[in-house]
């Protein structure tokens, strides 16, 4: 048995995953002849054929299945070594758990996690979803490292004594309307324009943020209620009413929904705060900075669905 090359193993794995030499070549950016040469060299090293040609492509032989499986493990180990080396050079590592209420968990936290994964390979970030009071209890108990809390009109008071807070950019409230709604794509919507609307509102525990009708309206008409933001937006897309959506989650609006701003100087709004324990680790500070940066990018009105 000869020596296997990493390139050969990578090509064999790509052929096994894609089912053809042509597809593997496109996936890897190689020519088809280069793929064929690498497969031939790996078959020579293995001392047996790895693929059987059929009318619809290629299938693994029993020996090919062994090599492809081991190739996947070897390539993952190599990637892990590269991540570890990058982490040493970066200097930011460790495990940080974010406790987020559902609307923050919809867009803000996943985008932040993806960005941090690329920027800091040695940093492991996890998400745990819960209400603001739950997140704060978990923070004090050491079960999360960063708690995202919703504060503002109608959300009650939270005990933040001996905790460190950072207000994230934005976290205003948008209006979600059906794509063919009279207010869709308008830039001058006011609270007065919303008086006759049918509202799709949130429901949940008393301690959870509620997303009712626009806060300054009197006696709004509630057509439907649902605890999940995705369900409320689905009802909006079906033309059954309008709903509030936090700016940090507006990017989750599905097709058929337009998101518009509402001008209302009589409402002070709501904010999202990142809360950590005193003396937090450097990795935790990096995560909070990442959340703030991503929140800042979500301030603008999302593109039409």
Q: How many helices does DSSP assign? A: 9
Beta-strand residue fraction: 15-25%
Strands, total number: 12
Distance between the termini: 56 Å
Q: Strand pairing plus helix content: what structural class?
A: alpha/beta
Largest sheet: 5 strands, mixed
Query: For the largest beta sheet, what order do the strands appear in spatially?
Result: 4-3-5-12-6
Helix content: 25-40%
Question: What coarse outline follows from CA principal-axis ratios?
Answer: elongated
What number is the mean pLDDT?
A: 86
Question: Which consecutive residue ranges, at least 5 long each, have pLDDT under 50?
Answer: none
Radius of gyration: 26 Å
Order of helices and strands: HHHEEHEHHEHEEEEEHEEEH
Structure, described:
This protein is elongated. It is α/β, with parallel strands linked by helices. It starts with 5 loop residues before the first helix and ends in an 8-residue tail after the last helix. The chain has helices at 6-18, 21-28, 32-46, 62-90, 102-106, 108-119, 132-140, 229-237, 282-297; strands spanning 51-54, 57-60, 94-100, 123-129, 146-152, 163-167, 173-178, 198-201, 221-225, 243-246, 257-260, 270-277. Strand 1 (51-54) and strand 2 (57-60) form a beta hairpin. A 5-stranded mixed sheet has the order 4-3-5-12-6, sandwiched between helices. The chain has a 3-stranded antiparallel sheet with strand order 10-7-11, with helices on one face. Strands 1-2 form a two-stranded antiparallel ribbon. Helix content is 38%, strand content 21%.
């Amino acid at each position: 048995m000869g020596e296997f090359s990493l390139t050969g193993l990578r090509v064999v794995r790509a052929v096994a995953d894609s089912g053809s030499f042509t597809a593997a070549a496109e996936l890897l950016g190689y020519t088809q002849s280069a793929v064929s040469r690498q497969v031939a060299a790996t078959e020579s090293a293995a001392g047996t054929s790895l693929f059987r040609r059929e009318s619809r492509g290629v299938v693994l032989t029993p020996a090919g299945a062994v090599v492809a499986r081991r190739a996947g493990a070897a390539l993952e180990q190599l990637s892990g070594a590269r991540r570890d080396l990058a982490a040493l050079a970066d200097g930011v590592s460790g495990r940080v758990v974010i406790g987020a209420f559902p609307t923050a968990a919809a867009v803000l936290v996943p985008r932040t996690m993806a960005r941090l994964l690329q920027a800091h390979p040695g940093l492991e970030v996890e998400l745990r979803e819960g209400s603001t009071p739950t997140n704060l209890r978990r923070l004090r108990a050491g079960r999360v490292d960063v708690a995202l809390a919703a504060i503002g009109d109608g959300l009650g008071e939270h005990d933040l004594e001996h905790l460190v807070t950072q207000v994230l950019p934005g976290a205003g409230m948008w209006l979600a309307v059906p794509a063919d709604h009279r207010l869709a794509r308008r830039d001058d919507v006011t609270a007065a324009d919303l008086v006759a609307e049918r509202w799709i509102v949130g429901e949940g525990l008393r301690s959870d943020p509620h997303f009712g009708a626009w806060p300054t309206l009197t006696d709004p008409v509630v057509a439907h209620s649902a605890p999940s933001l995705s369900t409320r937006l689905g009802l909006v897309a079906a033309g059954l009413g309008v709903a509030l959506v936090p700016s940090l989650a507006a990017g989750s609006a599905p097709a058929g929904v337009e998101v518009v701003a509402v001008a209302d100087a009589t409402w002070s709004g709501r904010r999202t705060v990142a809360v950590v324990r005193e003396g937090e680790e450097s990795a935790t500070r990096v995560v909070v900075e990442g959340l703030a940066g991503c929140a800042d990018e979500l301030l603008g009105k999302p593109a039409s669905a």
